[in-house]
């Protein structure tokens, strides 16, 4: 990986020297099918780049990662590939004012989801191709200047196997056996895209007439593998797409600029989705093979709108370098929820945002690798790791705070001016702040310094003084960690809640105020009736950890389920979870709250998040000697709620999955086995194929289902999805030989695809198998430095994070981690960051376990 890196300084130097006029890229993908004669499978890539040089006679380089280069010519002069190509770069000497570079290369198909990924469907043997580049993998497919600020128009052409269809960013047509695509607008290399194969393809169209009488017509398309076609609800995808296009046109006042709008759901995808203009790619898991809850449909809609927002924030206007990644990802993350609430049926999406997305941000912002939203990105490895909870979810949370700070219309008008002023260009932080300053009249410099240029999360706690059953004074206390002491300006709503005679916990007073400094008095609440609960950051206007005064916490511990407002309830759950993570609330107390009140949770997304948090509380934060007791309580409670839930409802499905994941006792495993075999049933619960795999996983992990049972299930579901489930279940079996084989397949071999690496890791590390996996802690630290150097960065990230011995949660593992860090100070910064993050999670778990043990 080190030879593939590109530094910010190199990129700045090249951007100052060069400007790109256009690319012609010709790919011959006919080698994707047929016999590869045992050799690594490659395809021909011929790239022509026309570019200017501001200093004739200067030298530079083009980026290309390829097994071999057949020919290189610069300005009509043939160059010796062995002299100018080193495996990652093409050296360019003595440049003219105007230049033409032609590179004819043999590029490699990918099995890691980076570059041009090749997937063979086990169901029918069909081959599917797609590209994924962010941040810098287009150089695995064609030669180019791989940095976001060297934009150019692209023309692609593709020779594909007979019977295939090919797609790219522009509209395409098949002419004399070649797919030729319309030239794009100026875009960055990392958002170009090619998809090819026998995909199932559905079409629709979108039309909008603007105030000036002009009409915009956008051809719509959606595709997936043929094997998934029976499950593909393209009508719902198109519905959300049209709703989103209407919403963004109304709010952005800038017509969608990239012609058609295709959406491809592709196999073995590393990300949720990617915003390639005109051809957005998604992971195919967004096509649901079985029954799922509305939370899954909401999440898919959010991703569709997130990627659509990128057409403006990121594609039309692009950050100059990855330091300002937030200029696209934070905005898209905010706009995904903003659009979901404003345009689709998912009107409660801000609840999901408060409960799920912000949990990701809070965790990331308390890691030793936390960074300002505007980050210091030294190179491409830094960039890859900064697609994190801070750039996405914290950035989106801060934008939500910004909307409260400047007003929604000023915010949107700033966006409109930003698009018109910088269309097809590149921007930095100051470019956005200037338009927001114009539209809001606010000093954006101070706001930016506090919110965008400092790291860490503040905690806000109410302080209540009472007199004669009235509020004498209510203040908000603001704290910050010693490592990141910034106290920020917060626009918050403070809500007062009381218990009614009917037993409901309802809000009776609300005030919006600006919190600044360590203590802010909320004068407008003086004289209010004494509250049973004070909720700072009611309505979730700012980004902070919510704390409670003693009386409010007592109220929640007894009446959390009585809170009538679902957003307030979600905020309280989130606050209690943060207290558990911070070792302020014992893990067993959080689990008790879930067992007592989760059954009353109306929002299905919140319920599923509670289930996930509860697993972490039990497996990581509970005292080891209480885990068996806690696990039994959870399985008992889950089964009780499964039987009590409305037949056929989504809550029943959620509790069924949670019960399966908690089952460990013989009677519970027997029930799962009976449900799987159909010898027993629960009214309304349809055990479809995806739920069958959910039941089979714990049976395999506890030794109830052996290899033959797993093989029989794969025969029943001999699909790509079934294969991933089979691999996970095989690796989950409680056997030393199984663990050794799984370890070897992931660490000692690189034959598995990215999806199967992920599935093997998921099966390998089971909370009930700590003794079996204990020997691999030492092996992990011996292997990761070599592995990081030998594998692609995506696989490196998956293995280093996924196989860290987190379940070996004892001081010795912490000491081993510290020893590795001390001995590898010169290791790649990105690798050290991943290990430091895992160490911090482990140290947090040990603190939480100590707190939980005290409660026992």
What does this structure look like?
The chain has about 850 residues and is an alpha+beta fold. About 45% of the residues lie in helices and about 20% in strands. The chain contains 28 helices and 28 strands. The chain has an 8-stranded mixed β-sheet with strand order 5-4-7-2-1-10-13-12. Strands 15-16-17-19-18 form a 5-stranded mixed β-sheet, with helices on one face. The model has no long low-confidence stretch (mean pLDDT about 95).
Which terms would index this structure?
856 residues; alpha+beta; eight-stranded mixed β-sheet; 28 strands; 43% helix; globular
The count of DSSP E runs of length 2 or more, i.e. the number of strands, is: 28
Task: Report the average pLDDT across residues.
Answer: 96
- Uncertain spans: none
Distance between the termini: 48 Å
Main sheet? 8 strands, mixed
Q: What does the radius of gyration come to?
A: 28 Å
Structural class estimated from helices and strands: alpha+beta
SS field, number of helical segments? 28
Beta-strand percent range: 15-25%
Q: Which strands sit side by side, in order, in the main sheet?
A: 5-4-7-2-1-10-13-12
Helicity, as a percent range: 40-55%
Q: So what's the overall shape?
A: globular
List the helices and strands and how they pair.
Blueprint (H helix, E strand, L loop, with lengths): L7 H10 E11 L13 E12 L6 E4 L4 E7 L2 E3 L1 H4 L4 E4 L5 E11 L6 E6 L6 E6 L21 E6 L5 E4 L3 E4 L2 E4 L12 E4 L2 E10 L5 E10 L9 H19 L8 E6 L6 E2 L4 E5 L10 H17 L7 E2 L6 H18 L5 H17 L14 H6 L4 H17 L1 H15 L3 E2 L1 H12 L3 H8 L7 E9 L2 E10 L10 E10 L5 E11 L3 E3 L11 E4 L8 E2 L3 H10 L6 H16 L5 H11 L6 H18 L5 H18 L5 H13 L3 H12 L11 H13 L5 H10 L3 H13 L3 H13 L5 H11 L5 H4 L2 H15 L2 H10 L8 H13 L5 H27 L1
Parallel strand pairs: 1-10, 16-17, 17-19, 20-21, 22-28
Antiparallel strand pairs: 1-2, 2-7, 3-6, 4-5, 4-7, 8-9, 9-14, 10-13, 11-14, 12-13, 15-16, 18-19, 22-23, 23-26, 24-25, 24-27
Helix pairs in contact: 3-4, 3-5, 4-5, 5-8, 6-8, 6-13, 8-9, 9-10, 13-15, 14-15, 15-17, 16-17, 17-19, 18-19, 19-21, 20-21, 21-23, 22-23, 23-26, 25-26, 26-28, 27-28
């Amino acid at each position: 990986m080190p030879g593939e890196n590109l530094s910010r300084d190199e990129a700045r130097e090249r951007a100052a020297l060069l400007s790109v006029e256009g690319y012609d890229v010709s790919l011959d993908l006919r080698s994707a099918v047929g016999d590869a004669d045992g050799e690594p499978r490659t395809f021909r890539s011929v790239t022509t780049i026309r570019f200017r040089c501001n200093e004739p006679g200067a030298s530079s380089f083009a980026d290309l990662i390829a097994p071999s280069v057949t020919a290189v010519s610069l300005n009509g002069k043939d160059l010796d590939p062995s002299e100018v190509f080193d495996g990652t770069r093409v050296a360019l000497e003595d440049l003219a004012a105007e230049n033409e570079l032609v590179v004819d290369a043999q590029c490699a198909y990918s099995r890691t989801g980076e570059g041009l990924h090749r997937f063979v469907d086990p169901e029918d043997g069909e081959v599917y191709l797609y590209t994924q580049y962010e941040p810098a993998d287009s150089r695995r497919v064609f030669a180019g200047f791989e940095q976001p600020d060297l934009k150019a128009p692209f023309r692609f052409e593709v020779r594909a196997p007979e019977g295939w269809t090919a797609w790219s960013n522009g509209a395409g047509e098949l002419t004399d056996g070649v797919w030729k695509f319309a030239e794009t607008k100026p875009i960055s290399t990392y958002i170009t895209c090619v998809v090819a194969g026998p995909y199932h393809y559905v079409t629709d169209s979108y039309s909008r007439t603007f105030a000036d009488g002009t009409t915009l017509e956008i051809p719509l398309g959606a595709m997936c593998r043929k094997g998934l076609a029976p499950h593909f609800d393209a009508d719902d995808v198109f519905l959300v797409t049209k709703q989103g296009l209407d919403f963004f046109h109304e709010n952005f006042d800038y017509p969608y600029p990239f012609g058609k709008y295709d959406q491809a759901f592709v196999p073995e995808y590393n990300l949720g989705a990617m915003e390639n203009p005109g051809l957005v790619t998604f992971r195919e898991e967004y096509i649901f093979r079985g029954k799922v809850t509305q939370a899954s449909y909401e999440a898919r809609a959010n991703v569709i709108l997130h990627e659509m927002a990128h057409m403006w924030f990121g594609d039309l206007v692009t950050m100059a370098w990855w330091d300002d990644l937030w200029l696209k990802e934070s905005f898209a993350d905010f706009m995904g929820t903003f659009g979901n609430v404003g345009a689709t049926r998912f009107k409660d999406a801000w609840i999901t945002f408060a409960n799920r997305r912000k949990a990701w941000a809070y965790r990331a912002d308390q890691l030793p690798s936390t960074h300002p939203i505007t980050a210091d990105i030294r190179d491409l490895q830094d960039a890859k790791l900064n697609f994190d909870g801070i750039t996405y979810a914290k950035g989106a949370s801060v934008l939500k705070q910004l909307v409260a700070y400047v007003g929604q219309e000023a915010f949107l008008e700033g966006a409109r001016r930003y698009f018109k002023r910088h269309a097809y260009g590149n921007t930095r932080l100051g470019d956005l702040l200037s338009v927001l300053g114009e539209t809001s009249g606010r000093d954006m410099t101070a706001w930016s310094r506090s919110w965008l240029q400092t790291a860490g999360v503040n905690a806000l706690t109410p302080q209540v003084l009472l007199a004669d059953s009235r509020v004498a004074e209510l203040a908000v206390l603001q704290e910050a960690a010693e490592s990141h002491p910034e106290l920020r300006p917060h626009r918050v709503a403070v809500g007062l809640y009381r218990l009614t005679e009917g037993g409901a916990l309802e809000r009776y007073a609300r005030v919006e105020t600006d919190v600044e400094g360590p203590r802010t008095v909320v004068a407008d609440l003086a004289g209010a009736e004494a509250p049973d609960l004070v909720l700072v950051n009611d309505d979730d206007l700012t980004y902070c950890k919510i704390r409670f005064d003693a009386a409010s916490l007592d109220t929640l511990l007894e009446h959390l389920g009585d809170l009538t407002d679902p957003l307030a309830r979600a905020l309280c759950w989130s606050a209690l979870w943060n207290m558990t993570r911070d070792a302020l609330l014992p893990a067993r107390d959080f689990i008790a709250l879930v067992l007592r009140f989760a059954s009353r949770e109306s929002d299905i997304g919140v319920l599923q998040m509670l289930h996930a948090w509860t697993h972490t509380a039990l497996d990581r934060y509970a005292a080891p000697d209480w885990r068996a007791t806690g696990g039994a309580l959870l399985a008992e409670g889950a089964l009780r709620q499964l039987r009590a839930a409305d037949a056929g409802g989504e809550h029943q499905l959620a509790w069924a999955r949670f019960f399966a994941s908690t089952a460990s006792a013989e009677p519970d495993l027997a029930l799962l086995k009976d449900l799987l075999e159909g010898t027993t049933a629960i009214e309304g619960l349809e055990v479809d194929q995806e739920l069958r795999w959910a039941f089979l996983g714990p049976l395999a992990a506890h030794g109830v289902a052996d290899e033959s049972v797993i093989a029989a299930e794969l025969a029943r579901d001999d699909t790509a999805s079934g294969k991933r489930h089979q691999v996970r279940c095989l690796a989950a079996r409680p056997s030393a030989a199984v663990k050794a084989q799984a370890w070897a397949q992931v660490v000692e071999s690189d034959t598995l695809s990215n999806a199967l690496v992920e599935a093997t890791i998921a099966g390998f590390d089971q909370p009930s198998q700590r003794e079996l996996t204990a020997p691999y802690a030492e092996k992990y630290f011996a292997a990761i430095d070599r592995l990081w150097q030998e594998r692609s960065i995506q696989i490196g990230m998956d293995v280093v994070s996924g196989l860290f011995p987190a379940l070996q949660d004892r001081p010795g593992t912490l000491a081993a981690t510290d020893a590795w860090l001390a001995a590898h100070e010169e290791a790649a910064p990105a690798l050290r960051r991943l290990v430091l993050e895992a160490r911090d999670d482990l140290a947090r778990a040990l603190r939480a376990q100590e707190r939980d043990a005290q409660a026992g």
